[in-house]
Amino acid sequence: MPKGNPNPSPATRFGAEGTCNPSRAKQKGSRDRLSKDFLAALSDDFAKHSAAVIATVRRKDPSTYLRVVASLQRQEIEVRTPESALTDE
To answer: How large is the C-alpha radius of gyration of the chain?
Structure first.
């Protein structure tokens, strides 16, 4: 049995209507809609329960709490030591 893509031609795989399999094709904007809906639901939930949930996570799972806090911080840190400012003079 041959393996690989049974329809390697991009012209027919992603072609006009009727030439591609609509059940397998990515629906236009579906990811954007899903992201939009998810973020809206998350925002609503956060507005209702934010302080209580943050306090609960901080008490019951401090490692997750710290991981979330760290993920919200800047990713680049510039370290300056007094030795780096010294010259040979």
So the answer is: 26
Residue whose tokens read 């954007």: 32
CA dihedral 48, 52, 56, 58 (to 10 degrees): 100
Integer Cα distance of 16 and 28 in angstroms: 14
How does pLDDT run across 20-45, given as a tens digit for each residue? Answer: 555 555 566 677 777 888 888 888 99
Separation of alpha carbons 20 and 26, rounded Å: 11
Amino acid sitting at position 11: A
3 state SS for 23-34: CCCCCCCHHHHH
Q: Which amino acid is at 56?
A: T
Q: Residue 65: name the closest of 74, 56, 73 by CA.
A: 56
DSSP-derived letter for residue 19 is S
Cβ–Cβ < 8 Å for 13, 20: yes
Domain boundaries, the chain: 28-73
